[in-house]
Amino acid sequence: PGIYQLSFFNDQSIYLVLFPGDRIHLDIDNSKTAISYYVENSPESKRVKELVDKQTYVLRQVDQLSQAWELNPPDSLQRRKIDSAYMTIMRAQKEFTEDFIRQDPKSLANIMAIYQNFGRKAQPLFDPYDDLSLFRFVDSNLVAAYPLSSPVIALNREVNQIKENYTDRLETNQ
């Protein structure tokens, strides 16, 4: 199995999780600013779509907060409230994603979940060091299920490197 990106001429793309022999059906509309699609016969790709839809919704919320933030003076009470709302949305997205991962621990869509960004600045939602236990959870489940899958091998390599660096950090700080 693997994770595949379908890219279109207008710089839009979708991700699919496919297994050998899958016969999926896609209904795609990429004529608008945001791509719209429906996928059948691929539960894993449907999970990716669920994740992407949630990210799109959250991004709209973050964009609204960013616009409001720009309209207010620095160090204002309003900006502090907006910052607080931003952190609340981020925590909620993290909780949603952790639940998403734990609902189906052997889903390849979980790789997309742990590497998702939050907001427009390519800020990772999960930090590999701060959230090492989640990375290890995803890694251990996927390695057991799909040891020969390229995305799983890459994740496992990264998690092992993080664990090694993390151990080195702990020894240095002692």
Strand content: 5-15%
Number of strands: 6
Mean pLDDT: 91
Strand order in the sheet with the most strands? 1-2
Provide a brief overview of the structure.
It contains 5 helices and 6 strands.
Jot down its keywords.
174 residues, alpha+beta, two-stranded antiparallel sheet, 6 strands, single chain
Describe this structure in words.
With 174 residues, the protein is an alpha+beta fold. It is 57% helix and 15% strand. It has helices at 43-70, 77-103, 109-114, 132-145, 150-173, and strands at 2-7, 13-18, 25-29, 36-40, 117-118, 123-124. It has a two-stranded antiparallel sheet. A two-stranded antiparallel sheet has the order 3-4. Strands 5-6 form a two-stranded antiparallel ribbon. The longest helix has 28 residues, at 43-70. The chain starts with a strand and ends with a helix.
Write the layout of secondary structure elements.
Elements: E1 2-7, E2 13-18, E3 25-29, E4 36-40, H1 43-70, H2 77-103, H3 109-114, E5 117-118, E6 123-124, H4 132-145, H5 150-173
Antiparallel strand pairs: 1-2, 3-4, 5-6
Helix pairs in contact: 1-2, 4-5
